[in-house]
Amino acid sequence: MASCAVAGRLLRGARVNISVENVRQVWPGRAGSEVVALAGVSHHFRSGKFSCILGPSGCGKSTLAQIVGGLETATSGTVTIDHPDRPGHAVPLGSQSVMVWQNQNLFPWRTILENVAFGLEMAGMPFAERTDRAMALIASVGLRGFEKHFPPQLSGGMRQRAALARALIMDRGVLLMDEPFGALDAQTKIVMQEELLKIFEATRKTVIFVTHSIDEAILLGDEVVVMTARPGRIKEVIPVDLPRPRSFDLVSTPAFGKLFDRAFHLIRDEVTKAMAEMNQPGSTT
Ligand code: ADP
Ligand code: MG
User: Fold this and answer.
1) What class is the 15-96+178-276 domain?
2) How far apart are CA 188 and CA 277, in angstroms?
3) Is the model's pTM score more than 0.90?
């Protein structure tokens, strides 16, 4: 990464805690049926911590991320966001978070610079100021020299960096990431994971990172929130006490192996259940 220190200096957004209390989400299914995606999820995401949500496909991870980000309203239960230094002062959902998805949703007709500066443009920031900030963020994700390129001219990994810069520039307290590296090849994924580790070190935002990869969850997270197969509940929270700064070398250490085994045993049954469910006639997944 070119300069994570730049990201650290630029990104001093508010620190926030997120409390998810008994969140239940029921989606409309086929032919008037209902799909219970989340069946009472409660968790406290602490300020400045990197939390990974790990679970089998279809268990409700994206649903939870969208509810926490204020993009969907839960059927029941509450999500509250507050600043640790101003306890009791609740903040509107979504106002403190920004989301990064697997498909980067960059505008293909805008340059990388214009894509990264987009949020600030919408917020009414003057051209010179938003361009300065966007240039610094682009450099901090290793894309210096590609400011004038258009998204289709870049590789998948580079586009994902641009999407990360576009999210980071908003300087929100919460970074929500829903399988952001899911579509990348194995090597690019490792590079991106290491870059995200450095950005996290420099900015210490509250990160909620959705994944179905056990390695990724342990490598990145301060904790791994393991979910059950649908209807999604929290099965167990695994604290990850591995020291930071971290790099991919961690994956070959005995401490990592122990955590992997623990998560694997928890998740194996859930994946089997999810697969059995998917094979049912009339399944909505
Ligand atoms: P995951 O991200 O863990 O793969 P999702 O949260 O995407 O799981 O989905 C959980 C369940 O909710 C699935 O059965 C899915 O089909 C259903 N679902 C998700 N979003 C919607 C929606 N907008 N409308 C209807 N059903 C949905
Ligand atoms: Mg998902």
Assistant:
1) alpha beta
2) 33
3) yes
